[in-house]
Amino acid sequence: MRLQNTLRNEIFISGLGLHTGLNINMRLRPAPCNTGVVFIRTDKGNVRIKASVSSVSDTTFATTLASEGVKIGTVEHLLASFAGLGIDNVLVEIDGPEVPIMDGSSLHFVSRIMEAGISKQEKVVSYLKILAPIVVMEGHSQIAVTPYDGTRITYRLFYTHPAFGEQKMGIDISAMKFVNELAPARTFGFLRDVEMLKSRGLAQGGSLDNAIVLGEKEVINGGKLRFEDEFVRHKILDAVGDISLIGLPIYGHFIANKSGHTLNVKLLKKILLYREAWEIVTPSVVKSTTSEFAAQV
Prior knowledge:
Layout: E1 3-7, E2 11-16, E3 23-30, E4 37-41, E5 47-50, E6 56-58, E7 64-67, E8 70-72, H1 76-85, E9 90-94, H2 107-116, E10 118-124, E11 127-130, E12 134-138, E13 141-146, E14 151-161, E15 164-172, H3 175-182, E16 188-190, H4 191-199, E17 212-214, H5 230-243, E18 250-257, H6 261-273, E19 278-281, H7 290-296
Parallel strand pairs: 4-9, 11-18, 14-18, 16-17
Antiparallel strand pairs: 1-10, 2-3, 3-9, 4-5, 6-7, 7-8, 11-19, 12-13, 13-18, 14-15
């Protein structure tokens, strides 16, 4: 495994909230060992919201966390960046109710983290090792995790749309693969749903600059997709962020069919419920560190 990591330097990021449309300022700060990821709402008396399964308050169109009645939404792309790069401990000071959407992917967050640097700490990272399969099914959607020596996500996505039908991808999650194959993949939605979302107070900051938008027959954004299968890659990116809410890296193979934030979180809750299906492992020998990767990129 590896040692715990935090940021080497602070990072300031400003941008629009996808659903609120508000301009939001966010500062990422280094944190001590065993802190985890903690959001601090500076506009709400510095209420602290731990990035954990127990903090999840809503999974409608995004993952939302809450504490003391204070919320922070659309956290999945930032959490995926931390998990993908192996950032274990960080304070996220933010002056609004939603993480900025940027371009709809994790690319901006990853780039800024790499610029700021990653600092390894003195404690070893423990991980949760899956010992037996765990499955959650809901309608036509399913997600499962099975034993695996590492972290792997296999995802199948299917829509009856002329622009794309079925997309499938399986990937072992590592820092290098996350940066190159998942981080640039943007969120997507359908033009037909825009009015419905706006009527519900959602997607107020949505635009062709921060999402792939699908019309009746084609992608209506200018330019090409970043990947031919960008849609399924983004779903995996979302899953990386959601899965990180367990609080430890998970050694297991996640197999998903049309899963989203709701089912992802339900699986995490079921994992915690079935204590006999996993164990916590704390390695005594550190084999590699993400900070070594960071120095090479």
